Amino acid sequence: MSSTREKGLIVSFGEMLIDFVPTESGVSLAESPGFLKAPGGAPANVAIAVTRLGGRSAFVGKLGGDEFGHMLAGILRENGVDDTGVSFDKGARTALAFVTLRSDGEREFMFYRNPSADMLLRPDELNLELIRSAKVFHYGSISLITEPCRSAHLKAMEVAKEAGALLSYDPNLREPLWPSPEEARKQIMSVWDKAEIIKVSDVELEFLTENKTIDDESAMSLWHPNLKLLLVTLGEDGCRYYTKKFHGAVQTFNVNAVDTTGAGDSFVGAFLSKIVDDQSVLEEEKKLRKVLRFANACGAITTTKKGAIPALPSDSEALSFIKDNQRRKENSFRVGYVSCLHSSL
C-alpha cells in the first residue's frame, strides 16, 4: 500500500467560510429558532473530502485575520489539508453564509461578504511552489466574481497548467453573489475551455444553457475540445458522464436526506481522489462507472447529516455503505424471488 505522502496532490483554490445552518428544517431564516455553526465553502469542502478519504490535498485561499479565519485554518490542519497556501487579511472579515434548509433537505443561501477576505486574495500572495506541485488543480467560479481574486484565480490556473496539472472545474453557482445572471454566465464560461474535467449540477446545466430540458443534447452543448470528462449530477437520480468516446448514467443511493449542503463537493472530492493517480479512469468506462458509484455513495452519505464538513465520509464508511446497500438489494431480490415461487405454486 502506498502512503498518503506518496499520493498525488490535489490543490483546491477558492473560498472557505462559515455556514450557519438552521436547527430546524423547512422554516425561513427569520423563523429559525437557532443555527449551527459549520465550516464550509465548496473548494475547502473538496480539499477535506479528499483527505477524509485518505488522499493528499492543499487549500489555497484567503481568510480573515479574525477568530473565524483562524478557526477555519485550524480545521484544515486538523483534517490533514496542507494550509501553506492560506493567507490572512487583517482588514477584512471571514465570509459568512446563512443557509435555509427546506423540508426536502435542499437549501438557499444568504451571504455576508462585502467584501470578505476571500475576495481580496492577490496574485502576489499565491504560494506558487505549492500550486506547481499539484497533480490536480480544482476550482470554482465564486473566485471569478471580483478583483483582485479573479486575477489571482487566473494566475493560479495558468501556473498549475504550465506545471502539468489536470484542471478540474465545478462552477458551484451561487446566483445571489453575482451582479446579474448574464454576468454570471459570462464569467463562468470565460474559463470553460481551460478545464479538462467539469462537473455541473442539473440546476447549473439549466442555468448555463438557458434550457429547461436536462438531456444529452443539452449537456453536450457545453462540450469543448480540451475536455476529457463532463459530469452532470442529478441529485437523487445519480449522475451522467460524457467523454469523447462514451457516455452514460450511474444511479445513486436512496437515503433520508437531511441537508444537501456539501453533497456535490463530497462527490467531487471522492472522484478526484480516485483519479489523481490513475487517469486511465477517464478513458475506460468500466473503471469510470465504478469510481462514479463510489463518488455517488460519498455524496449520498453527506446528505444524511447537517453541515458539509462534519458529514464528509471516510473511505471505510463509504465502502461499508456500498456493501450494506448491495446486501440489502440482494436480500430484497431473494425475498422477491421466493415470493414469486410461492405465488406460482
From TrEMBL:
Reaction catalysed by this enzyme = D-fructose + ATP = D-fructose 6-phosphate + ADP + H(+)
InterPro entries per the UniProt record, alphabetical:
Carboh/pur_kinase_PfkB_CS, PfkB_Carbo_kinase, PfkB_dom, Ribo/fructo_kinase, Ribokinase-like
One cellular component (GO) term of this entry: cytoplasm
For the keyword Metal-binding, the answer is no
* Key words, A-Z: ATP-binding, Carbohydrate metabolism, Kinase, Nucleotide-binding, Transferase
Which GO terms are recorded in the biological process aspect for this UniProt protein? fructose metabolic process
Q: Which branch of life, at top level?
A: Eukaryota
Organism field? Brassica napus (Rape)
Q: Which GO terms describe its molecular function?
A: ATP binding; fructokinase activity
Q: What family does this chain come from, according to its entry? A: Belongs to the carbohydrate kinase PfkB family.
Q: Please name the pathway.
A: Glycan biosynthesis; starch biosynthesis
Enzyme class, broadest EC rank: transferase
Residue ranges occupied by any Carbohydrate kinase PfkB domain in the UniProt entry: 9-313
State what this protein does: May play an important role in maintaining the flux of carbon towards starch formation.
Record Pfam families? PfkB
- Could you say which EC number(s) this protein's record lists? 2.7.1.4
Name the CDD domains for this protein: bac_FRK
Protein name per Swiss-Prot or TrEMBL: fructokinase
